[in-house]
Design brief:
Blueprint lengths: L6 E5 L3 H13 L3 E5 L2 H9 L6 E5 L7 H10 L6 E5 L4 H9 L4 E4 L4 H33 L3 H10 L5 H8 L3 H15 L4 H14 L2
Parallel strand pairs: 1-2, 1-3, 3-4, 4-5
Helix pairs in contact: 6-8, 7-8
């Protein structure tokens, strides 16, 4: 994703930091919106704003960067968060990363490091969203199968032949072939290997 397509929300109560970061990021082609408080960002999101990445200070009056991230998680907003701080320590950084923060950068900020981190965060976030959308589509297709289609599919992806499936389900091989073809059609699988891939994806998400 090119930088000019990336929308960044900067949150910091230090106006000088905001001005400096937004100037640099805009020169690099990012779209930047600045907020002096976390609640101002949340109000903007409530009003319909959308951002690809949030860069927030850790220590701010009212609502801290950690508290902001927790609200975003609670609201199921899949926006990658990068935290910046002038008072960081190892314990704080570890806690932030465990809570799902994409990166933790100490001030004075290395501008090039920040640009690289934002770009990487958005790239990974987009990949995750694409994966989730694919999984939801597979779930929908699988839910649309009949019980018999599901049985045949589950046995087919285990490597059983039509004859073996027929013996297992007490039906004819010809009937198995019919259910197998209809299952592949409903799952939009061109080959058995496609069906195996889909079954693995569905199985992994149930773990």
């Amino acid at each position: 994703m090119a930088s000019q397509q990336i929308s960044v929300a900067l949150v910091d109560d230090d106006e000088a930091v905001l001005d400096s970061l937004q100037l640099y990021l805009r020169r690099k082609g990012f779209t930047v919106s600045c907020f002096r408080a976390a609640k101002a960002l949340l109000a903007s999101l409530d009003a319909g704003a959308d951002f690809d990445c949030v860069v927030t200070d850790v220590r701010m009056p009212g609502m801290t960067g950690q508290a902001l991230q927790k609200v975003l998680i609670r609201r199921a907003r899949p926006i990658p968060v990068i935290m910046i701080t002038g008072h960081g320590d190892i314990e704080m950084a570890v806690a932030a990363m465990k809570s799902g923060v994409f990166d933790f950068i100490e001030k004075p900020i290395d501008d090039r490091q920040l640009v690289a981190s934002i770009s990487d965060a958005v790239k990974r976030s987009k990949h995750h969203v694409d994966e989730q959308e694919e999984l939801e589509e597979l779930r929908s297709r699988y839910a649309g199968l009949s019980d018999r289609q599901r049985q045949v599919m589950d046995l087919a992806v285990q490597g059983l032949s039509n004859k073996e499936i027929a013996a297992r389900l007490s039906i004819s091989p010809r009937t198995v072939e019919h259910y197998r073809e209809s299952a592949m059609q409903r799952m939009q699988a061109d080959r058995l290997t496609d069906l195996v891939y889909m079954a693995v994806k569905l199985k992994n998400q149930r773990r």
